[in-house]
User: Fold this.
Amino acid sequence: MDKINVGILGATGSVGQKLIELLQDHAWFKIAEVGASETSAGKLYSYAATWAMNSAMPDDVANLTVKKCAPDFDSKIIFSALDASVAGEIELEFAKAGYKVISNARNFRFDPKVPLIIPEVNPGHINLIREQNFEDGFIITNPNCSTIGLVLALKPLEDQFGIESINVTTLQAISGAGFSGLTSLDVMDNVIPYIKGEEEKLEREPLKILGSLADGKIDFAGINISAQCNRISITDGHTECVQIKFREKPSREDVIHAWNSFIADPQEMMLPSAPRRPVVYFDDPYSPQPRKHRDLGGGMTVAVGRLRDCPIFDYKFTITSHNTVRGAAGGTILIAELLEAKGFLTG
Amino acid sequence: MDKINVGILGATGSVGQKLIELLQDHAWFKIAEVGASETSAGKLYSYAATWAMNSAMPDDVANLTVKKCAPDFDSKIIFSALDASVAGEIELEFAKAGYKVISNARNFRFDPKVPLIIPEVNPGHINLIREQNFEDGFIITNPNCSTIGLVLALKPLEDQFGIESINVTTLQAISGAGFSGLTSLDVMDNVIPYIKGEEEKLEREPLKILGSLADGKIDFAGINISAQCNRISITDGHTECVQIKFREKPSREDVIHAWNSFIADPQEMMLPSAPRRPVVYFDDPYSPQPRKHRDLGGGMTVAVGRLRDCPIFDYKFTITSHNTVRGAAGGTILIAELLEAKGFLTG
Amino acid sequence: MDKINVGILGATGSVGQKLIELLQDHAWFKIAEVGASETSAGKLYSYAATWAMNSAMPDDVANLTVKKCAPDFDSKIIFSALDASVAGEIELEFAKAGYKVISNARNFRFDPKVPLIIPEVNPGHINLIREQNFEDGFIITNPNCSTIGLVLALKPLEDQFGIESINVTTLQAISGAGFSGLTSLDVMDNVIPYIKGEEEKLEREPLKILGSLADGKIDFAGINISAQCNRISITDGHTECVQIKFREKPSREDVIHAWNSFIADPQEMMLPSAPRRPVVYFDDPYSPQPRKHRDLGGGMTVAVGRLRDCPIFDYKFTITSHNTVRGAAGGTILIAELLEAKGFLTG
Amino acid sequence: MDKINVGILGATGSVGQKLIELLQDHAWFKIAEVGASETSAGKLYSYAATWAMNSAMPDDVANLTVKKCAPDFDSKIIFSALDASVAGEIELEFAKAGYKVISNARNFRFDPKVPLIIPEVNPGHINLIREQNFEDGFIITNPNCSTIGLVLALKPLEDQFGIESINVTTLQAISGAGFSGLTSLDVMDNVIPYIKGEEEKLEREPLKILGSLADGKIDFAGINISAQCNRISITDGHTECVQIKFREKPSREDVIHAWNSFIADPQEMMLPSAPRRPVVYFDDPYSPQPRKHRDLGGGMTVAVGRLRDCPIFDYKFTITSHNTVRGAAGGTILIAELLEAKGFLTG
Assistant:
């Protein structure tokens, strides 16, 4: 089978580079075009990008000439890793011109006609694109990095027991800040107790993702969420300390079983980037740890541990997930795989 | 005035060394004797201790011969930095033998006759020592490092508005783990989501400290506390993400004013180690930060910031305090100063 | 083909764990027995070991019962990851009893009858074991972590141009210190300018490895080496800043070509753990970097960069290599593969 | 005595902020004016600067209105913390207009009429300003951060024994890179083996500083220097691994005595920022360490340790110095103090 050509917008940035790294040797997709800002356009990708991934830059991408982010790409399937400051306008242009845009930017996440997707959580929401008024094109979005890990852990619990409220404090890695987000001096031997816009995303995005689609619109979930977000001195892997109040408190064993037995469409359809298990619970009280568990399932699995009673909520627990794989580039690719498997891309 | 001779038990450990560093050139106290384990006893302190403080080992302490931790010290005032595994027995022996023991260990913190003191918070609780059945001796204790920062920030709020519940997630420095608590590989580029016994201390100690003393016993405060404790890769300074529910919600301005105007006995009595202000609120959303604020007030001030509404509790805020100064050695010294000023030591 | 059973001595320590991790799914070898100290003996490995690797403990090893390190193993091939304090006596006992011991400990490295092997550098030295007076058993040793990376980079230069002197300053990762070597407080936000015994190893081991074997003894290489060794705050990957004086100075191009074209027995025999290229030169002035390059070639390749003229020596350059893979466990396994391929194990 | 008004150019950058922090409560100087780029000019300093120091921004500076960097300052004494990209032109304008400019920028360091000063090393070189063709103004420069620590340690050795060659490998802190020099992801869990222009500075600046002034020009010292420079993950404090070849090898005791007995003009004149001892040797093999020793002498003392024989040079040793205090802002202030004490400023 011929691979499907895709284009990447924002290809020189940190999420763009991670997409290139993860799409190298992908079973279904092949990077045929890369787009970036005017200053990069016209240059070879190897010159335009300051490559910051640990693996080597793939040769075939290195030799692509960077294009402007204008809708004259040959590839009809577009991964957008654009910065939010420009993503809104450019993604819209592409969608209008018939491109199928899978975006990692925040701009359209709360557009009533745009799905906000975690493939294991709300695969059915992709049908919302039918409400979009573009002929062949559409926009579909990937949630924020700290949202994805959290909601993957919440999904089986919401389904089986019903969640009333969630309280979460994050310890987030610096790779989530992008290349120029923080200087090395800021975060070294330090904690930064504020990440602009992050708490708002973490309090609101789960409600859309866990909501239900009916009559062409999403009814948001009725969960009360409070979030506190911190940046700490760690390369990769977000840790989230979570408290949960259920509609009816299940046993500890039932909660753990819900996590460990959770599988969904991506697992059943054996999508190339789907981990065998999206959520794994560890009994050891010193787990999860970001350095130990961030690469679990190729960086696509959420590690959970320390489930224990809470004097205020029902339970406390801790999760760790890879913020640039599951939480960004890998999550976007899994959405594309889901779309292809369900016939929305080339079908 | 002649300085008051004091002895230090557990003088070679990390809290012991910090006590020595902070008592150097102290206005009132002079280290006359140091005690440690049998393997150290009989050696010069400079040989027995693997000095890990950033300042140089004080010459006069370097030349002291380490004694066994037996109650034959000449100094009647004893700072105990002993490990909990031995502190219980030894401190009791000293108290029985007429020594006034100010302890940093956890062993007697919940003994009904032993005060658990933060000098700005519950100075009156020192009267509880009158209930102890030793002739001249007594035991008085300093709380856990993460407790002290938190309760200092809570005290003016409890006094003025009444607290119903507290939810707290900590990001704790490695210096709190003692010299041998963690290997460097454990915590580097990592988060350890579990600190043995820490959550229990943080949920329980504030209730005694904020309780009221009447008829020779302490009535614990009726506050519901839930804690989650993490070790992160930072040298010094604990950060705590706090949520608070009041009996009646005050305005944001009133809360900030309560912190910034808070002073207590140590400030009014101008104790040598008392900071001018025990709590300082910072308006900048990126504050507090442990590297920037841990040395505030000589490491004795708690920095607070990010007060904002909470969808679940009334408010969220973040605090940072120096875990080995205010949270351990400095806190112990301030208790001794309070005792002396109130006539309990040499009065 | 049936896999070859091997035993691991010192299986609960950091090198032992890395051996277990790397031998998981090995093409030729299967861990059949694990040995450790008396306190661990008799327990299941999963209980005896505090597993510190990032990947999960392999199930089959988890269920092995830990044995004492006495020569009653069924497996005749033994990997020793013992601490130097006990390795000497135990390894000798095993060799006398007919076991083929491949050791990572330093004890026998300078025994005149014991080969000190880097498979790409001095594969022929394995014949030195014929001088050992054990019937079937022998001892063969793996060099120190900082030696291996350096000598791999030196070998093609010594062969082609002849080396007169080497000056090297190291920046070494903490994983090389073993689990209990350093506390996290020591090295965080710090440099430790001294590693006991390390400079001596780095100045002396290369001379034996690059020496020539004739008449049953090794004639040490006549290179003058000076080393300075530092521990820095990094998880994995040793960086070495090297200066070299040749017998006759080659061109920069010739040096780079010597590195990039270097292959040896392990590559030609396609040993399972052999990297495609043992040494790779990077042109980018910001290379090599330990985080980016330590996993090159599965952690078995040495990354080199920054070759430039030196005002004192002929050239300066920088190398990075993975200290626990190529520099310890992986290096040991590659020796075993070389031995098997040359008929010294089961042949 | 009234304090002397000074102006600071580049006041919002990292060196500018450190100058402001160190000049707070200075015995002789008072910051009367601050200059920065056009985008900052006209704003209050508290708004224009993103304050990154650990101590609080001084109130009096916070309320200064930032000026453009044009020579219309009232203060005749100017500290320049300008970036090299603009320092050349601006400093020249100020000097021509009669300002006395003490610069931390590299632009004029090798101008034959501009002194490059470390007050303890070459105080007499300040007379070189007499060769400058400005009426009242002049330019005087402070060396690079890694140069200053090294040359302070070399000066007493050069004076007493004569140095033939120096080989140095640095492990430099990130604070030396300025606020935007490195992203936090670059350096975390990593080493960057290249700092643009740094090795050239370190090989060349010492020759001018250790040179001799005669007939209005400096005769460079005849020392052969080779440098290798690395950036590591540490907040403050440069470590330098040094090898030295003397004209005639002195004993180890003589070298250590030369360091420990070294004092110079700043100590004899008791300049406010002069440390009691510019160089201190530590016997402990684990010293010097940047976290432990960077604040020695208020950050103005160089810590030295590990003096030992070298197989290639005469000796090896390690030094640590505070890169933003002695190596930048503090060094600049000490030059100004020297100038004032010698009558070059207000005399």
